[in-house]
Design brief:
alpha/beta, Rossmann fold, 7-stranded parallel sheet, 6-stranded parallel sheet, 35 helices, 19 strands, 50% helix, 11% strand, globular
Length: 741
Amino acid sequence: MISSIKSMLADIKSKEDISTSTIEQMLINTYRLLDSEDEENYNLCLSSICHVANINHSDLMVQQLLHDCIIKSRIFLYDGLLQSIRPEYAPYISAQDSILQNFYTSRKTNTTLTKPQKEVFDLFQKHRRLIVSAPTSFGKTRIIREIISSNDYKKIALIMPTVSLLSEQYQDIKKSIPGYTIVKSSKVKIDEDENYILVLTPERMSAFMDENPKFQIDFFVMDEIYKTDYKLDDDRYKVFSDILYRLAKQNTHFYLIGPYISDFSEKFREKFNAKFKRFELEIVQKDYYKLDKIKNKGTHFIENSPLKIIGNPYKNLYRIISQKNIDGKFLIYRYQKQYVEDTAKKLANTWQVKPHNEELVDYLSQSVSADWDLIDCIRKGVAFHHGAMPRHIQDLIVDEFNDNSPTGINYLFCTTSLTEGINSAAKNVVIYDKKIGKGDTLGTLDRKNIEGRAGRFMQHFIGRVFYLETDDKKDKESIVEIEYLDKPRPAIESLLQLDKNDIPEDRNNLHNDFLSKIGKLEIPESLIKANRFVSVDGQIALIQHLRHFSAEYFFEDHYPDKPIQTKILSSIYDFLFTENDKGRNFDNEAGKSILIQLTNYYAFLKPSFKQLLESDTIIRQRKEQSSRIRYVFDLTTKYFEFVWPKYIKAFENIYNFVAVEKSADIIRLDMLIAQLEYGTTKPHEIILRDSGLPNEIIGKISKFFKDCKTFEDIQKITSSHRIEINRKIHSIESKVLDKYI
């Protein structure tokens, strides 16, 4: 039976002319195999259902058998998708079918769960501390609503890795969960009698917990939980794992979710009594095509059409997207920002202008540059997306890609910035490169995350994945490991964030040796610990330096003057920056000088994006306009908003420690930190910025919110003054306001 289904599936995938009776027999076999409790067999049945449904067969018997298989699979929403594709799809629905569907439909939210979703929900209700690994389109986040609705939690935190995911989850929760104050800003005034759902990034959650140390969470969710893994080439794992530790220590219930994880730290699960459940089934099935320019040259048949693969990957891409039988939108992965932009531009140069969102083009011309390559791309139905772009522009591009109207974007080039839980309308994913980041080989987890973007539940039964480069290495197990528990020699910066009784015995010597070292230097552990994840060696060196030269950094006003600020930034760069912080643009003395010069310009003169883009320093660094735009995006999103604020706060802590030692006056750098991180020092504008709005919009509407103290105040004013606010902003900015507020 299994071999028969697999054989028929192969025929369907190759677009062989299959008789109706053969399809009927395949569905009968599928119906029988659904009695199996083996997940591999269940996934095979889903593949059979999806591939037959994708044929959109008109035969009434095929439709009835397909419906019966869908009911037995307990993926009831397949029926709804079929009805939207073929309105005449009308199988007989028995009373038993309705009873079964009602069993999987929540009385609280009226949401119909799939069989695996209900299994997850039931597991959570039993264990209360659950870690789930499941592929994209499984519907992991939909279960959040059911958990909240079915339990009496008062204080909830939803930790999302990106502002885009945060906004998506915020909108969903706001519509479906009554009885809570729902906030997406760390700047919130807490009333102990209120019920709260905080929807925050890890960084914002950390800031909230520091400012509200007595706030006790009952239940929390962390999405993309693999980001806590210390093996990632990304220092952000430290913030993720720190928040996970701090929240789990509150004796909370939790639901940790992520795709394609083969296991989660056994030591963490034991310590916090957590259950791990792994699913490998694909609700949206995938068809895979290896079209490597070296290994797979020659003619391939895709959707029953010939496709010749040659030695030029771009021409191969062009041939794939030009095939009329290969329908749907395309997400094309390239591993570096410049390649993403260059390949999108190359495609756009060969495409005709099509109906497009003229308001978006006008807005980007005004707010960024009329010469930005993205604008010409959008006119051709092409776009690009990467992590250096401002979050609101990233979201606007994804919205255009998800728009199925004639004006929507059809081809979106991206780095991994679009593979981390963002829901898109891509039916097709093209993996152009087998690399990631600076050129390392694309790992199993990253590759699967990219593949997982092919096909979207309730839009497609089948997604397609095309490889223009392939790697013959076997998939590696994706085991998430927590640094302080699983790394043989964890960084002292991570150990310092733990309660003393949580430091593993075999790590005690590392901790004790460090305490002995700083004790001899008369440096308190609390000072080093307060500067979370800032290099301890750098901190010690800076303390020693300031003990001799602190007077040179002293100032009395709210802001340091330019010479002192330059000296502060220079010392931060010298003592606290890591090599990753410096990056390729600022990794030598000349680069350091340019970075400090631009930071001073931004802090003192508060230029708009366009003014910064057109400054002499930027023009000298990058001659070509699109390269300049990338450079300024990276400068603002990485350095002004993240790197400098973190280290300036650490510098303030360290300087003031030394000042107290010397019985000298302390300094305050909070105004400089706010100016860099938020682009403003006004409290109401910080709340607006914290919610995701860009400074370009805030500058136009700030006066409406000048008396606001909390995010709730912001929401009330937005609602009551919406007509006046809309008169002040572009129509696209109004759309951004809807998404973030």
